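Predict the 3D structure for this chain.
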Amino acid sequence: MVADVARRARASLGSLSMQATYDCLAVLTRAELVRRIELPGQPARYEGRVGDNHHHLVCRDCGEITDISCAVGAAPCLTPAGGMPFVVDEAEVTFWGRCATCVELNVPSTAY
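Done. Predicted structure below.
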């Protein structure tokens, strides 16, 4: 999360505003050096895994996010319906469920 980035940068720099952190992350995103992830109901996150079309697993209970590689083979749900003239260059898929730890601990679902 942005607050984590700012905290770690401040440890090295001594001083950094949240606005400067957002500005730097915006520049890094435009340069495709980081990727912005926007999951429903959560603050924006940034990750260093760029240049591929990977997806995410999100635990509804603890909020853990795990990267997963893009599914290979036929994936009809990733092709727009309706025959529209549109060239898809990226698809964002988020898998929601419960991580192994929460299932094992039988953590009551909080519908994260």
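The chain has two domains: 1-50, 52-112.
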